[in-house]
Amino acid sequence: MQAKMASWLLSTKQLAGVECFWTEEGYRLQVVVLAKKKGEASIVQQAANLGSWDELKALLPKDCPIFFGWNSPKLIFKSFDRAFENKEQALKTIFPSAKAADILVEFFPKKEGQLVVLGRKEELLNLLNLAQEAGLPIVYANYAPFVATALFPYLEEERVAANHYEFFLEDGALSELFKQEGTAQELNLGDEQLDSRLLAAAALAFIGLEDVRQTALDIPLLKDNQERLMYKKLLELSTALLLSFFFISLLANYLYLGQLEQENESLSLEVAQKQQLIAERDRLREDYEQQVNLGAGASLGEKSQQSFYADQLASSLPKSIHLLELEIAPLLEDKKAEREGKAPNYQQGLIRIKGISKKSVFYNDWKKSLQALSWVERIDDISYQNIDHYQATFELMVICKKEGE
């Protein structure tokens, strides 16, 4: 999904995840509607075994974007202990005789390696056309229940039974899966409880609501729906802005009439404001000159030492770590001193570093190499937070040895 359209679509209050799976009686639909409450995803509606698109439409809020999952018995999945460079390479490996235009390929993460799923484009298009005829705005499509991998990090269970499949987890990641019916479970997702048969639908809504980095099947119809919803939102926003403009114009006219009656007071207030701005300008100019003088007064030895620190840190940096901020002698925040107009105070002998590490083992190895430097007293961890299974952000403070130690 294009980033611009995603920002429009995901600004909606609610988002629906819908899984379509096949039974002996025909297809069935599972739906979970999520909304963000106090910054967290919350289940506001769920339903299982719906028999028609019209039933689904009656349940959903108007113009609710749908993230769709296709669970077909004709899907082909293969597990590999390596990752493919692209989808064309995966298709040639699994199904050499297939035409690339007829097959849709998607990748899903595993604890070790990669899961590759293949399906026929024509079968999915038929389902999407039925949804389109029912007036349902599907903006994203992928393979179910494999999209459930997006929620695996939040589960404590080691076995999860979804529709027609059983997943086995290890450390919150997919370890093995089998195409077989398992006993449904009640899953705990934070404060929410969810039937495992609805896990794929919940994962689809979660992908949309939390903007999870999961690619989608490339279908032109979905892009058309994205644009249609975006333009509808634009129209609604334009109408709201136009009404706001008229209201503000009326209010401005009213305020202007009142202002004419108090012209003398307004002029006096304007003069006072300008005097205040002049005083603020003078204060800022004085602060600037103090900072310039402070920088000019730094000794050549201090600058040389800072360059030495920066060079040592750069030479120790591995490829697996990317620095976002490097601050030598960070500024000590002192609001009282700032109000009193005192010169800023820099924390000599400290180096604050922020960055991104691919894995914790690389981060720990790098810290050990820093600790081994002759001028390093110790290293204090400030924060370390995982972004996903492959990388994390960190912040640490390097305390330098004092001269003569």
Automatic annotation (TrEMBL):
Keywords: Coiled coil, Membrane, Transmembrane, Transmembrane helix
Source organism per UniProt: Saprospira grandis (strain Lewin)
TM regions (residue ranges): 234-257
Keyword Membrane applies: yes
Protein known as: Fimbrial assembly family protein
Top-rank taxon, per record: Bacteria
Coiled coil region boundaries: 257-294
Key word Transmembrane helix present: yes
